[in-house]
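FORM 7B - TANDEM STRUCTURE REPORT

SECTION 1: FIRST PROTEIN
SEQUENCE AND C-ALPHA CELLS:
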Amino acid sequence: MADKDLSLKEYLADAAVFADIFNLAFKRYHFVIDPKELRELDSVQVMATPLKQPIAREGGGKKTVGYRQRVHDVLKMMVLVEDGKQKEMLLSIEGQSKRSRFMPLRVWQYEDHTMAWAMKRRDMRKRNECPLPGMLNVVLYMLPGKWPGATRLSQLQQRPKGRIAMCMNDVKMNVLTVEEISRHDIDSFLSEIGVVANAIVYADNPRKLWRILGKSKKAQNLSVRTVGIINEYTNLGMEVKEEEERVNMCNAKEFWMKEGEKKGEKKGVKRGIKQGTQKGIDAMIASLQEMNITFEEIVRQLQKQFQLSHREAMRQVRKAMA
C-alpha cells in the first residue's frame, strides 16, 4: 500500500476528524457523533471463502476453504441509546483520491463482509438478544470538484423498464467531497479537516487560500500530521522543522505568494504569445487582402506562417473578412 494511502488512513482514524466527516455528511438528517463515543475496531476482517476445487495438503487431507482479507480504510463503532435501548452502529470511511467506476459495488462488498463478520461476532453471545448492528459508510473524495462516478449500484447495472426494477436491490453510496467541506467555516469543525479541504481545493490559487486561512484560528496552530496530509495531496510543499510540534500555516504566506506569482507569470507569457500571434494573423490577412491575394492563397500562407490547421486558417480569414 502506498505511503500516501497509509497517511490518509491514519489521519481519518483520528476520532475528531472521523466525527467531523460523519457530522457533515449526514447533517441534514441531524445525525451527530461525539468523538468520545467512538470505539476502535480492527478495519481488517479475515473472511473464509469456499474453494472451487479442493487443494491437497502436505501430509494428507484437502484444503476446502481459502481465507482473504477485506480492508476498510477506517472502521469504528458507536452505541446509540434510543427508547431506553442500546443500538450498535458500525461506521466506516473510505478515502478516494481517484475515480473508481465501481465504487458502489466495492461499498456493497465491504458492507456484506462486515455484516458477515458481525454475524460471527454475534454467535459468541446470546442470539436472541443480539441483533446485527446498523452500518453507515462514507466515501471521502480527496480531489477538487464533484465525485465523477456513480453513487448507486443501479447506475452500473442493466435494469428492465417498469415496476419490476423497483424489486431489484440497490445500494446507495454516501459521498462527501473536500469541495463540500471547504464551503463551511474552518473553525466550526472539531478537527483541522477544514484546513486540509481548503488547501486541496485552492492549492493552485494561493492568494484565495491565504484570504481564507488568514481568518482561521485553526490554521495558525496545525498539527504536524495535518501538514503532512496537505503536502501529500497538494503542491504547497510546506516545510516542517524537526523540533516543531505545531505549525502556523499562515507563515507560509510568502512562499504561496511567490508560487502564485510564478504561475501568473507563466500564464501571462502564454497569454502574451497568444495575443501577439492573433495580431500577427490579423495584420497578415489585411496585408494580403490589399494585394488582392485570393482566399485560398491567404489560407495557405497562414498555414505555412503560423502552423495553423486548414480549418483554423479558413476560420481566421472568414472572421477578418466579415
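SECTION 2: SECOND PROTEIN
SEQUENCE AND C-ALPHA CELLS:
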Amino acid sequence: MKKLVTILLGGLLLSMPVFAADYDDVYESEPINDALDYLTDEEVIEGYDDGTFQPLNLINRAEFTKMVVEAFTDETPDEDEFNDCFTDVDDEWYAPYVCYSQEEGWVEGYGNGFFMPGDNITRAEAVKIIVSVLEWEVESKWYDGHFNDIGITQWYGDYMWAAEENNLFDELDQYISPHEYISRAQMSQLLYRALLVEEGEDFEIVELSEDAGTTTYEEVLATGIQPAYPGDMNFASNSQSAYPYGCYAFATKNLLEWKYNWFLDIPEIQETIGWDGTFIWSPSEFLTFAESYNVDVVFTYNGNAEFFFKKLASGEPMVLYIPYDLNGVNIGHNLVAYSFDEDGVWVADSLSGGLQRHISYDEVFVDSDITTTNLTQLRKLKGNGTRRDQILSW
C-alpha cells in the first residue's frame, strides 16, 4: 500500500495525496476501491500503460460489452467466427465480443444496422446488457421503486427496475438519470455489484437512514464518515472575473470541467440560454441550458446533512449555495463543494481569481444544523436534459 509522503516547501509541511495500491490516480479514500480491487484481480478491468485508471473517463459501448462478456461468461469469442455483425462492426478488437453478444441477444444495436461502438454508454444501456446476460426477471407490471425518472413504459424501464431490485443502485436521490453517460468508476461499481449478486454475496448500497431528516451535521460527522477526495486535490476553480455576479454559471463550469473535462464557454452560454451574465439563471434559462447542453440539473432544496455528506463520501461534488454579504445585503453565492473534514467543507470558488478554500459549517448549515440550502448535481446525458427538483428535509 502506498504511504503518505510529506515534503517541506517554503517552510510549510505538505501532505501528498495517498493513492490506492493498484492505480496511481485513485485515492485510497474513494469508495470504488473494493470494486477495482476485485475486478482487477478477476482481470475484468485494467488500467492504462501509465499506471492510471482514469475513473472519471466515460466508457464506450464496445469497451463495456467486452467487459461484460469477460465478467459474466467463461467465453473467449473466436474472432474468426464472431465478426461483421453490424454495419460499423467488422473485425476490430471488440468485434468478437460485440458479435457474440449480438448472437446471444444481449445487444441489438439501433435498428438501422449500426451498433455505434465508439459512443459513450448510458446507465440504461449498460444495465440492459447486464440484466440480459444474467437473465434477471424483467416482467414487471408496474414500477413502485425509489426513482421518479424511470419510465416503466420506456424500453429501459423493466431493465432498470430489475437492476434496482438487485441493489445495483445507491438510493440517495429521487432521480437516477437513466440516460446519463457513465464513467469508468460508475461502470466498475455496476459490474462489481452484479457479480456479487450472482455469487450470493452480501453488500451494502448507500442510502439515507430513516431518521436522516432529523440528524445534525455533528451527528453525521460523529459516525466517522469520510470524504471520497482529499481537500488538497486539484479541482477546477475558474475565475468569474468580468462576471461579478455570475457565480452560478462559473460553479457549473468548474463542476463540469472537473467531472467531464468539459470546458464550457461562458459567452456561448449567455447567447444560448439568453442569460445577461448576472446572478442565478431564471427557470426558463435553467431549462434551456439543460436541454441545449444535454444535462440533467438536479436541485436539492433543504438537503439534509446525511444526504450532503453521503454524496461527498460517494465522490459526487455538488454546487453549493452559501450566504454572501454585499453592503449588508445577502446576495448569495454558489461554489462547488468537493470534500470535508471535522471543521468544515472544501470548496472550489470562482471569487478572488478562482481558488480552493476551506469554509466553516456555519456557512453550509446556515439556518439549521440539520439542512443545507440549495445543492445542485449536473449529469451529462445522451439526449436532452431537464431541470429536476427534489426536497429531502422532513
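SECTION 3: OBSERVATIONS ON SECOND PROTEIN
Residues 212-391 form a domain with the Cathepsin B; Chain A fold (CATH 3.90.70.10).
The first strand starts at residue 6 and ends at 9.

SECTION 4: SIGNATURE
Preparer initials: ____
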